[in-house]
Amino acid sequence: METKKRGDLIINGLGSSNGGQFNEVTLNGKGTVNSDVECTNFDCNGLGTVNGNLAATTANISGNGKINGSIEGQSLSIDGTAKVKNNVIVKNLEVSGKTSVGGKIKSEDIKIKGRITVGEDCEAETFKAESHFTIGGLLNADLIDITIFSDCKAKEIGGQTILIKQKATLFGLFLPFIQTQLETELIEGDRIEIENTKADIVRGNNVTIGPNCTIGIVEYSGELSLDEKAVVKEIRKV
Predict the structure, then answer these.
(1) How many other CB atoms are there within 10 angstroms of residue 111's CB atom?
(2) Burial class (CB in 10 A: 0-12, 13-18, 19+), 141
(3) Positive or negative CA dihedral for 12, 14, 17, 21?
(4) How many helices (H) and strands (E) does the chain have?
(5) Fewer CB near the terminus (10 Å): N or C of the chain?
(6) Residue 156 to residue 166: CA distance in whole angstroms
(7) What is the rounded average pLDDT of the residues 5-26?
(8) Cα 196 vs. chain centroid, distance in angstroms?
(9) Neighbours of 96 (CB within 10 A)
(10) Which residues have a Cβ under 8 Å from the Cβ of 1 and sit 6 or more positions away?
(11) Does pTM top 0.70 for this prediction?
(12) Strand partners, 201
């Protein structure tokens, strides 16, 4: 990406600008960009709006950012609140705030600590979450590692290794009155270890159904471990 001849776009306080190609884009205070933006670094520290698509090598939203299009780039970090109308396609995604994506997410590495809502599919090589999330489509990754501390939902979950566990409280104890649950229609993978999960179907090779699970059908081809506190209506060895 040629950046030597590009200028910077900095909006402090209340202001607006047309989009275009820039090196640095910084939105402080209340800033609005009224078309597509392509830049090396994008920072939204206040109340920022991009009325178009954002293409940035690195992007950080630590304030309140609204992208009325899609985000593409290498890395996206969200520490504040972000709303993306369409898709997020980045190599690395980290969310520690609150994020809403109307379309799909496609990334290599996703780390979620906070709250995220995805309208469509979420695809990655590694998906690690200690969060509350709602995914309207398929959550798919080679490694899915989820620690539940609030109710989570995904239409379907698929991957090689799928680990779902309840966040421990003080001293590693599980307190019934704060237990939450992940809810999905289907979990399918090679190695599956889950707890505090409600699913219509769990299908895999080696499957461990932990405590506080409510499962309609479990299909497994290797080994099955079933906790005494789990409820499974039907088991099939395939």
Answers:
(1) 19
(2) buried
(3) positive
(4) 0, 24
(5) C
(6) 19
(7) 93
(8) 19
(9) 17
(10) 40, 57
(11) yes
(12) 186, 217
